[in-house]
Specification:
With 189 residues, the chain is mostly helical. The protein contains five helices and two strands. α1 packs across α4.
Length: 189
């Protein structure tokens, strides 16, 4: 399959769907928990896991996006695997769960669950078959110089936010480790 997207186009797809993913997460938590929760790792309203999935899926599914079965299976498997791996990495790096589906039936280590896997499958059909072509049309209407400017500005903002957010998460981890050491010390006294 030939590569059909420029870096700027893929980045804009990444950024657009990262923002949409953040909105979906906030709405879901508003319904589930009854309150607003910033569901992103970053300070900005953005969930990179959605952006990465959409950028990769856009390239991988170009030749099969007319098959509802392939889109559904892709959504179930690819999205669940990415969610599981990213959840594990975040748990190891920061010793904290960024999401937990332990309360849901048919979950694996609380990182993925059957309900979300099925929703990912149907979501892949809706997004790749109907929404993504519209997103691509809008991106293609943006003049190339403007695409490049937007990409540079949002790339810098993303990297800065990523660094600041990672530092915050590391500080949280160190604080948690300090609290654990204090509890262990007090228990052995």
């Amino acid at each position: 399959m030939p590569f059909e997207y420029s870096f700027c186009e893929l980045f804009l797809i990444f950024f657009f769907w990262g923002f949409i993913g953040w909105l979906v997460e906030c709405v879901d938590m508003r319904i589930e928990a009854g309150e607003f929760q910033n569901r992103g790792f970053l300070h900005m309203p953005f969930c990179p896991i959605y952006g990465v999935g959409m950028a990769m899926g856009t390239m991988a599914l170009q030749s099969v996006k007319d098959s509802y079965v392939i889109l559904f299976v892709f959504g179930v498997i690819f999205c669940s695997v990415v969610e599981y791996i990213v959840g594990g990495i975040l748990e190891k790096l920061f010793r904290s769960k960024w999401w937990d589906y332990s309360h849901m039936r048919f979950n694996i280590k609380g990182r993925v669950c059957l309900r979300n896997a099925v929703l990912f499958g149907f979501g892949a059909i809706v997004v790749f078959r109907f929404a993504q072509p519209i997103v691509e049309q809008v991106i293609n209407r943006i003049p190339m110089e403007m695409r490049l400017s937007i990409t540079v500005i949002f790339s810098v903002a993303f990297v800065v936010d990523l660094v600041v957010s990672a530092r915050r998460a590391w500080a949280y981890r160190k604080n948690q480790e300090g609290d654990e050491l204090l509890l262990i010390f007090k228990a052995h006294r």
